[in-house]
Amino acid sequence: MGWLNLPTIYNVHLVAIIATLGGMLFGFDISSMSAIVVTKQYIEYFDNPAGAVQGAIGSALAAGSVVGSAVAGPISDKIGRRDSIMFACIFWLVGTAIQVACQNWGQLIAGRVLNGFTVGITSSQVPVYLAEIAKAEKRGSIVIIQQLAIEFGILIMYFIGYACASIPGDASFRVAWGTQFVPCVLLMIGLPFLPRSPRWLAKVGRNKEAVATLANIQAGGNQEDPLVVAEWEEIVTVMNAEREAGRGWRKFFKNGMWKRTMAGMSVQAWQQLAGANVIVYYLTYIASMAGLTGDVAMVTSGIQYAVFIIFTGVMWLFIDKTGRRTLLVWGALGMGFCHFVVGGVMGGHHVYVPGGVGDPPNANIVISVTSGHAANTVITFSYLLIVVYALTLAPVCWIYAAEVWSLGTRATGMSLAALSNWVFNFALGMFTPPAFVNITWKLFIIFGVLCVAAAAWFWLLFPETCGKTLEEIELLFGKDAPHPWNTRKGESRLTAEIEAIAARKKKEEGEGVVEPAAEIDKA
């Protein structure tokens, strides 16, 4: 039931579209800097911030997100997935207000930290919420809507910033940052109409409401539907086993749980270490290195975000037909190849510009690619890297991280995964601007090596989770689980359970199955 007896939306795709406005906040904040950091207004007003200062401004979002991710799990377990997202929105409104009114880069950092706190909660709990309401065979396509929302947020905010760049004075970036209120307000309006997660309801003992919600989402309200009965029986069985396993932080590491903790946290760490965010955040810098200036550079960088959306949209159609392992391994190798090409071409065709490239000079950009063909290659493979990322690690890392946890650990576990993402995001955010100044093209070689290491890690340690229920995935990390490279997508036992329940119901000749509510009382 919605807040204040409001009607509740049970269409999963519509629920996902509303919930993933939380992802749009993430996207808005990412590109709230991308189009602005190269403008004359920003450089002059904030006294040409470079190196560590620009790193601190850029990574402030991640710093706040580390804190948000750390507290998201306990908050979500206490008040629910949906309500924790609403709680986070309050900090976004305050943070955005501070950014709009900031008088120096210290206040700008403070506002971005508060926005980051919101993103830390939403980036961890929106995937949890979506994973817990989606059917196993559709879970990837539902959770990937979060990634699409992030990318639409990046694109929209980038071109808002680009458009505002023509406004004279500090109003250019203040107007752009002020538009960040819009997606937050829309999210806060939509949240009361969403159902609570049926798995969270079961976790806190609201069993009848859990079954009713599960039935409304999965079977048009029919609580005796075999799918609803089979899924509820799995939830109850796993929930009872987890209660016997104990409480506290030890449950994240005992009885093989450490494998899942490692998988959830490391997949998010590798998403950052693969280096795509160097392109996402700073393609405007790379475009300047390649000799593109003014509107050409801005539009070239903006097209990247459109490419990002298009190819993630393509993967939305196929995400549940392709194994997670396959996409992770080949995606990391493909990104590594692109990094090596960009770094190699830059290394062989550049000249140092100690004062900085551009007008006014940008102190973060100290090399310029000398050859036209080399510059075109750099831009082409930067685009290609984003294409590979959009098809593979960008959506799959969030999906995989949301899938590997048990019911009792999912909210806090996903918080740990997001915490890992944001710790590395923060570290790389601080590292990248100074790296552009100090090691220039060698930065891309480093990320290329890390991508190869990521591919090896994925192949050796990550079992296939595609097409399996959240409860079945537990078996993949158990003591007797097959080696990760021997696991395959699909092969879900839920289909057999549904067929068995349907047969049992037919055999009882009108007596019907035991109603889920009765099963609840037994549990």
Automatic annotation (TrEMBL):
The keyword Transmembrane applies. Keywords: Membrane, Transmembrane, Transmembrane helix, Transport. Its main location: membrane. It is found in: Membrane. Gene3D superfamilies: MFS general substrate transporter like domains. Residues 15-466 form the Major facilitator superfamily (MFS) profile domain. The chain crosses the membrane at residues 12-38, 50-72, 84-102, 148-169, 175-194, 269-290, 302-319, 326-346, 381-401, 413-431, 443-462. InterPro entries: MFS_dom, MFS_sugar_transport-like, MFS_Sugar_Transporters, MFS_trans_sf, Sugar/inositol_transpt, Sugar_transporter_CS. It is a multi-pass membrane protein. It comes from the Eukaryota. Belongs to the major facilitator superfamily. Sugar transporter (TC 2.A.1.1) family. This is Major facilitator superfamily (MFS) profile domain-containing protein. It comes from Remersonia thermophila.
